[in-house]
Amino acid sequence: MSTSQAATETTVPTLPTLPRDRSVLVAVLATTAVSLVGAAVSVAGDLSPTYLDALGPDGHLSVPLPMTAFQVLTALLAAAAHRRRALVGSGLLAVAVTVALVSGLFDGGYSDDRLDAGQRAVQVVLVLSLVVVAGLAARRFARVLRTRSQ
Q1: Domains held by the chain: number
Q2: CA geometry: angle 87, 90, 18, nearest 5 deg
Q3: Do the Cβ atoms of 72 and 135 come closer than 8 Å?
Q4: pLDDT by residue (tens digit) across 29-67?
Q5: Would 53 be classed as within a structural domain?
Q6: What is the structure's pLDDT at 3?
Q7: 71-105 burial by CB neighbour count: b if 16+ within 10 A, else e?
Q8: Which residues are CB-contacts of 77 (< 8 A; sequence separation ≥ 6)?
Q9: Which of 63, 72, 81 is nearest to 140 (CA)?
Q10: What pLDDT shows up at residue 149?
Q11: DSSP state letter for 49
Q12: Which of 10, 23, 54, 107 is the most buried (most CB within 10 A)?
């Protein structure tokens, strides 16, 4: 190879890649749909005065909007084919959702006496979907962690 050829050829560093896994993203999107329905149920049942209030920090049938945005962003990262992005996204999502679920046990979020049977069912579906999100994110994190950097 001549000197001029060597000078024009450049090596672009690549990020380590791994198989994409969109299961976390699908679970977060499904949870978001349940949350949006839960907010509507909350307003219809006079638990919240407005839809935005139902999606706020005091909503018992929905995930607050900032947390929803965080979940979608970290789920997109978790689905990435790049190892670091997938580790960051899945790790942050698994921890944050687990903390949110546990905090609901201690702040009275799961024990609102005003909920009727239908509202309680929406709450149970929401909580179970969050458990699935946390589990899938933790699984993605563990699987990506076991892969070797390339």
Answers
A1: 1
A2: 50
A3: no
A4: 999 999 999 999 999 999 999 999 999 988 889 999 999
A5: yes
A6: 54
A7: bbebbebbbbebbebbbbbbbbbbebbbebbeebe
A8: 85, 86, 88, 89, 90, 92
A9: 81
A10: 52
A11: S
A12: 54
Counting as low any pLDDT under 50, the low residues of the chain are 150
As a whole number of angstroms, the distance between CA 22 and CA 78 comes to 8
Q: Which residue range forms the structural domain that includes residue 57? A: 18-146
Is 4 among the domain residues?
no
- Kindly state whether residue 72 falls inside one of the protein's structural domains: yes
Residue 78 and residue 84: Cα distance in Å, rounded? 9
CA-nearest of 29, 63, 60, 30 to 43 is 60
Cα 95 to its chain centre, rounded Å, is: 10
Contacts 24+ apart (CB under 8 A), 40-49: 41/118, 41/119, 41/122, 42/119, 45/116, 45/119, 47/112, 47/114, 47/115, 47/119
- Hey, how many other C-beta atoms are within 10 angstroms of the C-beta on 64? 16
